[in-house]
Amino acid sequence: MDGPSIDCLAERLLGAMADAGYATNTVALTRCVLRAICVRHREAGSTGYDQEVVDGFVADALDGELRGDVSAGQRRLFVRVARRLESMVEGELEFGRRPTKATGLCPRLEAAVSSLASNREWSRETTESVRRAAIPYLRWVQGRGIDDLAAVDADVVRAYFVEASGRMEPGSVDAIRRRLRKFHGHLADEGLARRLDEAFGFTVRVGHRIGQPASHDELAGTLALVDRDCPKGKRDYAVILLGVVLGLRGVDVVGLTRGDIDWANGEIAVRQSKTGRVVALPLTASR
After folding, report:
1. Superfamily covering domain 216-282
2. Which residue has the higher pLDDT, 117 or 34?
3. In the chain, fewer beta carbons within 10 Å around the N or the C end?
């Protein structure tokens, strides 16, 4: 006879973890494992919790680790999620509130971060993302001798982005700005700070960080280390040349087949993994 609905159990477990303060990434990984367990149940023709299905899932995880298909960390995650499901069915699952990491903020600024928990209009993921953006921002504000957000104005916000953008990835500046705008909007609604919507209407130019290419001597030294007298060495040598001479990405090289090489016309056809477009590149005389 089927036990409690497996889908309901999965949602209850995810909710319990979120309420206990587990990190968003941890909850997301657990959700992926629970989906796999739910699929196993449906494949077995069961909509309710089935201990045999869960035991089979755990056994397959152990076998997968032995075969090398599953890492030790993945196997531990699979087993942990399965055991939590069992404990939930037996009514023995309890999560204590996980302590949050120390922020290093003064009481006033710490209170501003803690107030995010009272916002019921945001999802847990949004609240967590805003919190992650707010903590380094508030540390920077505190380092400037400001311990009261009522003293923060548009100039302070802009100064933070001008200075901190040098440490951010180019694509993350706008995301951080959106989160801090949400943060200040929340603080204004709570009466903890002034509304600063106008403070976020500016652009910070961030240069792309392009690494220095390897020198010719470094490339020649690398190629000289390859043993070209054996099949594996010849393969490695060809792979390196495809990257150096034609500029192919590793994932594009892996996808090449003999049919992609047109010896008669001296071309090699590459379907780029990033764009899906087929590009014809000339074969060179490199040896």
Report:
1. Intergrase catalytic core (1.10.443.10)
2. 34
3. N
